[in-house]
Amino acid sequence: MASSFLIVKLILLTSFLNVCSAALVVEDPQTQLLKYHKGSLLHGKISVNLIWYGKFKPSQRTIVSDFISSLSSSSSNSAAAAAQIEPSVATWWRTTEKYYNLAGGAKKASSLSLSLGKQVLDEGYSLGKSLSQKQIVQLASKGEKSNAVNVVLTASDVNVDGFCVNRCGSHGSSNSKFARRGNKNYKFAYIWVGNSETQCPGFCAWPFHQPIYGPQSPPLVAPNNDVGLDGIVINLSGLLAGTATNPFGNGFYQGAAGAPLEAASACPGVYAKGAYPGYAGDLLVDSTTGASYNAHGANGRKYLLPAIYDPSTSRCSTLV
């Protein structure tokens, strides 16, 4: 199952902004926007492996690897994350813990620890520049087969089925032949995100580019001065939240299993308080560069991260 991180559409955004601005506190799990389907959430010590497909500059790869290192202040390689200035990436990620508390059982939030794993470079486009979903899974299998989330990042000149049409990325799981180790098949979680810089920045890198449709407003300055990669971080972060809380298609989600609303996709276009269609919210602004952001990360990074639906308050939770 591969669940798409659906593109922001005005009518959907308006609908869920109403949910996000509600003051209602939900105590009954049966009334949650995102229903728990009794499956496993991501747990344990999980490495996030990055598979870079196509041409990426070293500086671009560092933007994403620093983001992954920023997620958990408890992981072994995140000393820099522990020293993050607030509001921080690590604080943003802790909102996902509330889903574990709601699910109950032995797999509590404290048992999930994410860390940066290995990075695989495929700069020679081994499968060509037009990829199917099956080929995305094949690339994802280049990462670890267990205790891992394998992230495939495709370059700006790579076409992927559905990219810029109805999705900017996707996540899912696979126990196909590509996950075989010896005589045993492994089921692993994977994420794919494309670099939209040249293909559809108004679709997948808003608010750092003029939107394709809907209310028009000037684009914001990207915090890492790279519209494509800052857009990747926005989509990757939302898909990571969906992967943690719905890794195998039977965790927390609403709607059809093949195209669900999840922890971040339930809050489309919301990045800070005061958000409304065409306006990302009242973000922080770097006084030197003019860049807009809402989270500090490792190694002095700044990022823009999407709101996460908070099941304890029935609101879209933002850092600022």
Write up what this structure looks like.
This protein is an alpha/beta fold and 320 residues long. 22% of the residues lie in helices and 23% in strands. The strands form seven sheets. A six-stranded mixed β-sheet has the order 1-8-11-6-3-4, sandwiched between helices. A hairpin with a 5-residue loop joins strand 15 and strand 16 (302-303). Helix 2 packs parallel to helix 8 (227-245). It is globular.
Short descriptors:
about 325 residues; alpha/beta; 6-stranded mixed sheet; two-stranded antiparallel sheet; globular; disordered N terminus
In short:
The protein is an alpha/beta fold and 320 residues long. The protein has helices at residues 10-20, 58-70, 79-82, 89-93, 97-103, 133-140, 201-204, 227-245, and strands at residues 2-6, 35-36, 44-53, 112-122, 130-131, 148-154, 159-160, 167-174, 180-181, 184-185, 188-194, 252-253, 284-285, 292-293, 295-296, 302-303, 308-310, 315-317. The strands form seven sheets. The protein has a six-stranded mixed sheet with strand order 1-8-11-6-3-4, sandwiched between helices. A two-stranded antiparallel sheet has the order 2-12. Strands 5-7 form a two-stranded parallel ribbon.
Strand content: 15-25%
Question: How much helix is in the residues?
Answer: 10-25%
The stretches of 5 or more residues where confidence is low (pLDDT under 50) are: 2-29
- Taking all residues together, what is the mean pLDDT? 86
Structural class: alpha/beta
Which overall shape is indicated by the principal axes computed on the Cα atoms? globular
Q: Give the spatial strand order of the biggest sheet.
A: 1-8-11-6-3-4
* First and last CA, distance: 34 Å
Q: What value does the Rg take, in angstroms?
A: 18 Å
Number of helices: 8
Following the backbone from N to C, one meets helices and strands in this order, namely: EHEEHHHHEEHEEEEEEHHEEEEEEE
Main sheet summary: 6 strands, mixed
**How many beta strands in the DSSP annotation?**
18
